[in-house]
């Protein structure tokens, strides 16, 4: 079973994540940031991942450390759960509508870290969630998971819809990328390693 359970403690945050790539169970998400909890819950649902997240951070400062550090740990969990990446599809792509918004996320579990992020998030705050942190979250995930992640809002008006469409597209792209394909011998690379 491909799963990981990682706890990371700093002077700013304590983050624990349990990720199961092959068994979906009701997600348990508690970061102290309502909008972020909503995004991670729908990520687990639309990616069909088992996900538990418990994050305690310095929310009296702002939510940046909690969101970014959660991204680091989620990325580390994907990297650990994927192991040697034998027989995984490696690539994933999803385009997701959310009312007036259309978002696309494309993944390569390449072993190389890179983020391309194109989204105009005009509303700076949704509840106690600062929307500029969305890019920092995806960068943390991409770099700790060692993957290429291209996240693009193609068009839209509502900031909530834009971010939600990105998280749903990320979920669906990740599900494609981590799928096991028995026709792939070893890893999906001519190098023989990812």
Automatic annotation (TrEMBL):
GO terms for cellular component: cytoplasm. The keyword Acetylation does not apply. Belongs to the imidazoleglycerol-phosphate dehydratase family. SUPFAM superfamilies: Ribosomal protein S5 domain 2-like. Pathway: Amino-acid biosynthesis; L-histidine biosynthesis; L-histidine from 5-phospho-alpha-D-ribose 1-diphosphate: step 6/9. The keyword Transcription does not apply. Its EC number is 4.2.1.19. This is Imidazoleglycerol-phosphate dehydratase. The gene is hisB. Keywords: Amino-acid biosynthesis, Cytoplasm, Histidine biosynthesis, Lyase. It catalyses: D-erythro-1-(imidazol-4-yl)glycerol 3-phosphate = 3-(imidazol-4-yl)-2-oxopropyl phosphate + H2O. It comes from Ligilactobacillus ruminis. It comes from the Bacteria.
């Amino acid at each position: 079973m491909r799963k990981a359970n990682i706890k990371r403690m700093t002077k700013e945050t304590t983050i624990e994540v349990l990720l199961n790539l092959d068994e979906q169970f009701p997600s348990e998400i508690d970061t102290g940031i309502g909008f972020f909890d909503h995004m991670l819950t729908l990520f687990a649902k639309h990616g069909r991942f088992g996900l538990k997240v418990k994050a305690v951070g310095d929310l009296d400062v702002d939510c940046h450390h909690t969101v970014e550090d959660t991204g680091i740990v989620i990325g580390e969990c994907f990297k650990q759960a994927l192991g040697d990446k034998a027989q995984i599809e490696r690539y994933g792509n999803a385009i997701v509508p959310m009312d007036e918004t259309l978002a696309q996320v494309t993944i390569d579990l390449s072993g190389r870290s890179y983020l391309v992020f194109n989204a105009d998030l005009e509303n700076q705050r949704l509840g106690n969630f600062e929307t500029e942190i969305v890019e920092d979250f995806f960068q943390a995930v991409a770099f700790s998971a060692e993957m290429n992640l291209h996240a693009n809002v193609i068009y839209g008006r509502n900031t909530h819809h834009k971010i939600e469409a990105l998280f749903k597209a990320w979920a669906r792209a990740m599900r494609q990328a981590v799928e096991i394909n028995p026709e792939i011998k070893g890893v999906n690379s001519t190098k023989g390693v990812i």
